[in-house]
Amino acid sequence: MRQVILDTETTGLDYRSGDRVIEIGCVEMVGRKLTGRRFHRYINPQRDIDAGAQEVHGLTREFLADKPLFSAIADELEEFIAGTELIIHNASFDVGFLDHELGLLGRESIGKLCAGILDTLRMARELRPGKRNSLDALCSEYGVNNSGRHLHGALLDAELLAEVYLAMTRGQDSLIMDIDSSPTRILEFGVSGDHPAPKVIRATAAELADHARVMGEIGKESGGKCLWEAEKSA
Hints:
It contains eleven helices and five strands, in the order βββαααβααβαααααα. By secondary structure, it is of the alpha/beta class. The protein folds into two domains: 2-173, Nucleotidyltransferase, domain 5, CATH 3.30.420.10; 203-234, no CATH class. Strands 3-2-1-4-5 form a five-stranded mixed β-sheet. It is elongated and about 70 Å long. The two termini are 40 Å apart.
């Protein structure tokens, strides 16, 4: 699977009120390895930038005045992301803006261009319920150096997110079982009769209380849709 980690910067928070995309940054990953291929463009929004947004990314209308319109970079963007799995932090925000830009040009939505969209914010909330899951917080949690991130930038944030994603999903490849040898070893072990009796270690009261707290946080985060809650009420 070819994956593309994507981030955008915008003139404000709501495309429905006229805000536009002003920067797109993408990095390519194949087989969980960054290839070095990047897509990075600044875009002229032909409108003012909200003061709050400008404080976040530092991009001004004057800086963007000589940059291309979105229509001029749309073909390049589509070519770079077509058929990939997109990895985006808070995907609904970026996808909403990009779909709006593409829709203004009569083009297909991101969901139709790509093989899938993975939201790392949603993934982080499942892994770390009740904790802050901003990109900065995840960089701190997983040891990703973000010391150069004084302002948000689409390409820098995409590069940081790529490292965070790899750290969050590290170890998945090690779950592959050697199907040629494992069943044989298990069978021999089961019939030999000389294996030790299993040792039962019961949870302490403190561990049970901590478990109940974490389950409660997960249940709250899921809006009461956890499977075990449904089983208890059945």
